């Protein structure tokens, strides 16, 4: 068993909900409506066993106490959530109309942000119960709700990153030649679980498959001369890891070395562009310029990175055209990649946090092209 | 490896989509809008790797060919789905507006049924792109979309039920005394997987816990004298199993025997009430009357059963007040239960299909109170 970090406190949850309500007010919203998923768990600590047709709804209204409406069957669960004391819980019973129960918590003509993943069943129920309310997807109006992490959250991401580093160092010792992508991916998954990870995702792209950035692990057998992209992560103590390294089976060619060096240089340039006040697209440009200057522009990866936290992919998106400003506490992946169709690809990606002084890498393992057997 | 049944054909999928569109027309709908989930897979065979912020939408319009809109990245997957030849596929690319792409497939003022689980993000996108369209939750307007199974589907449910029967017969040989609920539940899960099941759900409720119909498997240690409810199932070849039996550790008391006999009698009465044209609540009454007459009415289970197919719980619901008529091809669980708070509970539940001649049990294993060690 690993050391579980101290749980978040009632004050942590109260602070998150209060900040979210303030952000809503500043955006001209009457409030936030949150259904089960990462936002609900992050805001109030409640994680229903399943997302179902029974409405569970957290209502955050500027200037009012947070309200959580739950099915009566799930009330005991909700009351035992770590943030339960920071919300006022009410319930509805089977046979009652949950949307009627929700109307007492909403302004009849309010404009609300609603979780992207809220079921249509529930949104239509609210729209019918309160025809003058209007709704916007949460990530459209408040994309950065969970983007700024506090020190405890950064510590959890750093711990997840260290675990992923350890997995990478262990995988270098396994045999690659003669085994299938799916077998190496299973090794990665097992190592991640040994490193206290859950919800593991592992992708192994070898040889020509490495040139396809959307490759799914398959049954190709690895052989000498293959580039192999290892892209993996999962959740540890509720926070995500995501690490990508490209290794080579046996000795690489000169061109393979050149492309790998280029990708690492580009990734370093993106990392160095991280600073409070820099925009996402400036970081993306930092990587892309190097690749373009080297003549590989048309083969560059589409995106440099993405936010990471209680989910593996979240705003901010480090892509061209994205003008969001970086701020201290934001955590995201920084990657660079070159994909030569039909031949090979290289990607290197780390998790980085933005501090007042610039970027800090949470992954520390070597970014060089390891030679595997 | 078990023998995989013959896959459903393009004709099977075409027939399902055509029937769904006809049902939509009869309900006064302009069509059905289906996003990833069991309905999408059942209708056209497409099962995206994940449900994401990228819109995937099946549009079924009476009198028109089925249309499937997918993200361009997922087009290869969609084109390899077993029902792909029965739909016309189009795609949208990152950077394009998927809702604008969808408008070409919808009537600008149509009234549509939409999957219950469609993300609010997508529903709001459609509502904004086509402000005069209106939407109703699919299970509200067409609850029986998947309820009538064809012979191939019933065969898969029968195969899943036979596998669950085999698991039950095997679990009787394991040790119960001195082991925890979680350990017996893990045994059930392992046996189900050995019987080619995926997405396994197992609940073990022992002693006083058996009196709580919402108990989740815990760490209680089983001991002589315990009633133990075993409630388990999963998916086999895409179709669900669900079996509940109540066993006893060592010799039961006379009252325990009496209650178990009563539950079995009530379950048999419900089974005998199954016939085309009977209503769901008549079947429910069939079980409940016996329990009430025996003086246990206030301790009776809330519901007799639920539909089963590509999901483990779906309409029709066999409960009081539910006036849906049974029809040949419907498949559902039939259960009965008595829960004596603080003492013990008993539940017995099988999967049954409605034929022209009445109910046919798909589970064949003994319903008596087995004595375990």
TrEMBL record, chains A, B:
UniProt-listed Gene3D superfamilies: Creatinase/methionine aminopeptidase superfamily, Creatinase/prolidase N-terminal domain
Cross-referenced Pfam families: Creatinase_N, Peptidase_M24
Residue ranges that the Swiss-Prot or TrEMBL entry lists as coiled coil: none
Record-annotated Peptidase M24 domain positions: 157-355
Source organism, top-level taxon: Bacteria
InterPro entries: Creatin/AminoP/Spt16_N, Creatinase/aminopeptidase-like, Creatinase_N, Pept_M24, Peptidase_M24B
Residues in Creatinase N-terminal domain copies: 16-147
Name of the protein: Peptidase M24
Species of origin: Streptomyces canus
